[in-house]
Amino acid sequence: MLISTIMAEELPKKNVLIIDVREKEEYTEDHIPHSLLCPLSTFHPKNLEPLEGHTFVFYCKSGKRSQHVAEMWTAYWGKSCYNLEGGILAWNRHHS
Asked: Is the separation of the CB atoms in 78 and 1 below 8 Å?
């Protein structure tokens, strides 16, 4: 069970599921294109099954909430995943 950090510029272009763990209001304001909203407040790992051949990347505003969710997901499924270093703040810096 391994959680690694990944930089915005390192995100794979294919077979990646980007999961936003912020709340709906935050997601509506700004989010990574094609990301899936799974708020921490209602998150349970059983509702987010691993997909064979896909990389899972969790993110939030700065990386703290997503680290928590990544730990929960990894503990439940026994699979590796990534936490986006610096969250959407880093993503926006990289894409501005």
From this structure: yes
Instruction: Write the CATH number for 13.
Output: 3.40.250.10
- Decide: 87 and 66 in contact? Cβ < 8 Å: yes
d(CA 14, CA 4): 18
Q: Tokens 């999961």 appear where?
A: 19
**First and final CA of the chain: distance in angstroms?**
34
Digits of tens for pLDDT over the chain (96 positions)?
A: 589 999 999 988 899 999 999 999 999 999 999 999 999 999 999 999 999 999 999 999 999 999 999 999 999 999 999 999 999 999 999 988
Q: How far is CA 49 from CA 57, 62, 66, 73, 86, in A?
A: 13, 24, 17, 9, 25
Q: Which domain holds residue 45?
A: 3-94
C-alpha span between 38 and 23 (Å, rounded): 8
